[in-house]
Amino acid sequence: MKSRCHIAMVVSFVLFLFLFSAAFLILPDHAFSETENRGLQSLPHADAEHLLSGEYSARINDYFADQFPLRDGLVAIKARLELWTGKGENNGILMGRNGQLAKRLFTLARADGETVEESDLFDPAHIAGAAEGISRAAKRANVPFSVLLTGRTLDVAASAFSYPCALSDALARELRQSIDPSVTYLDMLPEYRARYESGEYVYYRTDHHWTTLGAYYAYKEVMRSYGLEDEILPESAFTRTVATDRFLGTFAAASGFDATPDTLEIWYRGNEDAFAVTADGKELPGGFYSTSYLTGRDCYSVFLDGTHDVVTVQKRGEERPLLLLAKDSFANALAPFLAQHFDLVLLNLSSPRNDFTNLSAAAEQWNADAVLVLYTLGNVINTDRMNRLQ
Q1: If 0-12 CB within 10 Å is exposed, 13-18 middle and 19+ buried, where does residue 346 land?
Q2: pTM of this prediction?
Q3: pLDDT in tens, 216-251
Q4: What residues does each domain of the chain span?
């Protein structure tokens, strides 16, 4: 009887392997994951250079992980198992109180040019280099220059997790101490952390961005940095509209957790039609807001139509000062507020196609009246964009 059970188990296991191997061969590869909102690894090309460097091995592993049949369902099952066993984390995403998610593991860029995957540390020498780049760019600018390095969710929502915030505090301290005191450095982490702890909805639960309310607080701080506090529009000047209450962001996708959806608001001033908004040379028909994204996974791309290399905003028929905004995607939700006072040129510092790190040259090219650098601490840790500013 035992031998029959063993044979049945072996046959079942072999059949399982056969079916999944056949699925790999029969099912078409997918280029994009709607669930995770990211591109998937295609079958890599094998050549001598990539084989010797080990890059082919890494890519083929990514290929099998990304194209595995029933992958989304298996990720969800793994996430539930991680919670049941008390781990409280899956794929580097923490599950905290009140459904708060946060990314714990980042790619660590080092000062020697090497990178470390899935690390929760930072390289002090790399951070010092970033501070040096920021200070260098500020000194070369001939116009008012402000820097806002936005906190990661892990930094802002520290009270939601048992994970220690000592590394977040050390990172913030390293930047404060290393950036030249003459630079207008807007350190908003203490304010965001305090507002989060008091129950304000300043960062999304399931996504890595700040909410529209969080962006509004950044707008107020930027205006103060340019001496324009008297021109700040109060919250009552806007009509707050719930664009969707079904927003499941990047953390929900990567973790596989059964997350509670976020609410995404659009704050309308009532004069949105007065602005011409272009993205990479083409005018956006929806202006600040591309509402078609609200029906998909990437709801945050409702702001400025998502990621573009160069976005310009002009108020029709009016001459205004121009603000050059060197940024990542956090700035997309901030731009509609700043556009009430400035014409804008937004340059994507994270672009894989163009290098916008020469800010003094860009300010001269666009005849900018002021420069704002807005970059998240996660990108400071894992890229060299801040280190190369000039």
Answers
A1: buried
A2: 0.82
A3: 999 999 999 999 999 999 999 999 999 999 999 999
A4: 1-28, 31-68, 101-382
